[in-house]
């Protein structure tokens, strides 16, 4: 997990995410970086748009609006579909990040 944090730190600072850079960040904490895991992380991030992955992961669930009277069945179905779509997008984003960071 610390390697993912190192990659995120490098990204947020505008630095290239390379094996040496990730190792230096981890070494700066007093820990020793696992060469194999560092190589795998850098290789898996090679063609990934990190900004896009972060924005997809930051999906917030919309709170259902309180109704001021009886709601029609059609309105209830629309609200239910919106909630399902939001949940589905959140799950897809989480799955994408899981694949991204292993």
Q: Which architecture per CATH?
A: Orthogonal Bundle
Residue windows where pLDDT falls under 50 for at least 5 positions: 60-64
Per DSSP, the total helix count is 5
Pattern of helices and strands: HHHHH
Helix content: 55-70%
Q: Can you give the mean pLDDT?
A: 76
Radius of gyration, taken over Cα atoms and rounded to an integer in Å: 20 Å
Oligomer: single chain
Please summarize the sheet with the most strands: none
- What is the end-to-end distance? 9 Å
**Strand pairing plus helix content: what structural class?**
mainly alpha
What's the level 1 CATH class?
A: Mainly Alpha
Structural domains: how many: 1
What CATH calls the topology is Arc Repressor Mutant, subunit A
Strand content: under 5%
SS elements, strand count? 0
Shape: elongated
